[in-house]
Design brief:
The chain has about 160 residues and is mainly alpha-helical. It is about 80% helix and about 0% strand. The chain has 7 helices and no strands. Helix 4 packs across helix 5. The chain is globular. It starts with a helix and ends with a helix. The mean pLDDT is about 85.
Amino acid sequence: MSPGICAILSLADEKTSLPRFLILLASRILLVSAFLYSGADKTIRWSAGEQEIAASGLPLVSLLHVVTVVIQLGAGLSVVFGLQARFGALALCLLLVPITALYHPFWLVTGPSLVTELNHFLLNLGLVGGLLMVVVYGAESPRGSARLRSNEVRRRGNN
């Protein structure tokens, strides 16, 4: 392995270092960046956001638009800042799963559209996977989680 990669991996392994904190923060920002962008875009271009929802055939367009923007921005920021990150990540998952099925139904298309829709579908599933990790571990990584460490100490004590 190259020295640069080894250095990055060693920084990520340190439990209380500033570089580890920055790596986790950057990871959370990257994970929710699409939601933050989409929520901001739907706010700035309000009528275009409503037209997008209306084109999908869903009812209650204005209500769904507001709910979508609130979840994308509110839950996205909660994940970034680690404030109720588990709840924020869960809210984003609950938003993303039906949106993925509705807007990327790869099973209904053929030809080049199939590849495009399947690609978007799988990318969204990857986001769901990352968000579910935040649901389980919170804003911390699995190794740094105080809850996991205390559970491990309790298990060792019971053996």
